[in-house]
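User: Just a sanity check before I run the rest of the batch. Below are the structure tokens for the first item. I only need the designed sequence back.
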């Protein structure tokens, strides 16, 4: 039986400290091997700061899949040369991508293969959102069409067809299988339409934001944000009223807004703009992206994650990632901290001389934070622990003493 291991960046944290990534400026450019325009990114958050999968889509039918926690990306065959605008996975196997000419692609094996699903329209699709493996919606740029599927995309029905006041939709989001929103633009106004019955009926209203509006995101059926050229708006009552947020002197078009919880959020846009907030958007602060190209989509793990992870994609094949911690080292520098030896049955490591072994212990956690194994380290800097009974998936190795903690994410594939 072959056992494969993948390691991410390691964080050395003060005991009890949880970092969120807010204020971090160390965005790192991933290796993508493409210069295509990338329009959307999707990861699966397994909890505890461990992300699974990772997919990005873009022009010319481009689909990329992440490895090494977003440091490297490899192309997957989409079977199309049409531009793809949006991608979403609901688990590590099941995902959809949509794009020009009514294109809908579906994968059941983590993006290794994709097959086409009939949308019934030829208008470009700009956004897709599924709440589970069966219930999903997609929105079109032309004629302001919204399509709904209740069988995983095998068939689609029209829910909105040009009767909303909008000329086209740019973003769609559902908090659950009943409550959702779609945003777009008319000749003179930014439009939002809301449903509370899974799309059987929709009610439209004008947003108090300049044209064009590009993105909508909610963390539940009450609290959400929209973003565009006119800035960022927030609602606390499901979209009945909206309040403008302080984004400083930012004048760039904002293309995407994403919140990992009620406090921590990111907005990305033209000219390499990245904004972040740690107070629900009351104030937004710029981060240094290291690029001036257009950024289109963002993802981040919750602020309570043991190790924060964020990803942004954009033009020219650009993918930026960030991980937080008091000390971050790349995989190539891992030996400065722990010397690992891995087999199908044992995980062994050697602690660095700078790490006090007095009152120290080691443990393995699942990606969702469940402690599986824990041992006192004793008086030796060399230690081994059994891992033969661990199934495939993501884990964290934790080594701690009274003063500091070393956390290393890893993944097992057998």
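Assistant: Here's the designed sequence for the first item:
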């Amino acid at each position: 039986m072959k056992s494969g291991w993948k390691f991410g960046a390691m964080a050395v944290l003060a005991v009890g400290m949880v970092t969120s990534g807010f204020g971090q400026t160390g965005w790192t450019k991933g290796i993508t091997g493409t210069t295509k325009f990338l329009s959307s990114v999707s990861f699966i958050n397994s909890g505890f700061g461990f992300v699974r999968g990772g997919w990005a889509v873009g022009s010319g039918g481009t689909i990329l899949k992440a490895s090494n926690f977003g440091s490297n990306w490899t192309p997957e065959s989409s079977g199309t040369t049409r531009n793809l605008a949006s991608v979403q996975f609901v688990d590590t196997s099941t995902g959809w991508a949509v794009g020009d000419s009514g294109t809908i692609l579906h994968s059941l094996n983590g993006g290794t293969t994709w097959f086409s699903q009939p949308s019934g329209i030829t208008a470009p699709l700009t956004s897709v959102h599924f709440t589970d493996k069966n219930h999903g919606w997609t929105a079109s740029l032309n004629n302001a069409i919204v399509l709904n599927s209740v069988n995983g995309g095998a068939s689609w029905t029209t829910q909105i067809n040009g009767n909303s006041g909008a000329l086209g939709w740019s973003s769609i989001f559902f908090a659950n299988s009943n409550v959702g929103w779609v945003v777009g633009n008319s000749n003179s106004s930014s439009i939002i339409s809301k449903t509370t019955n899974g799309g059987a009926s929709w009610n439209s209203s004008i947003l108090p934001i300049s044209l064009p509006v590009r993105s909508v995101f909610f963390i539940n059926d009450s609290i959400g944000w929209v973003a565009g050229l006119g800035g960022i708006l927030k609602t606390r009552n499901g979209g009945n009223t909206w309040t403008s947020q302080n984004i400083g002197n930012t004048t760039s078009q904002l293309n995407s807004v994403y919140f990992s919880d009620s406090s921590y959020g990111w907005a990305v846009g033209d000219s390499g703009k990245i904004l972040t907030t740690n107070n629900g958007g009351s104030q937004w602060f710029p981060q240094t992206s290291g690029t001036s190209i257009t950024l289109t989509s963002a993802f981040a793990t919750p602020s309570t994650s043991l190790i924060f992870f964020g990803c942004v994609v954009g033009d020219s094949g650009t993918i930026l990632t960030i991980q937080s911690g008091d000390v971050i080292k790349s995989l190539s520098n891992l030996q400065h901290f722990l010397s690992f030896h891995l087999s199908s049955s044992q995980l062994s490591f050697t602690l660095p001389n700078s790490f006090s072994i007095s009152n120290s212990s080691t443990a393995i956690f699942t990606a969702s934070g469940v402690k599986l194994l824990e041992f006192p380290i004793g008086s030796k800097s060399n230690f081994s622990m059994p891992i033969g009974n661990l199934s495939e998936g993501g884990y964290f190795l934790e080594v701690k003493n009274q003063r500091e903690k070393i956390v290393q994410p890893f993944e097992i594939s057998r």
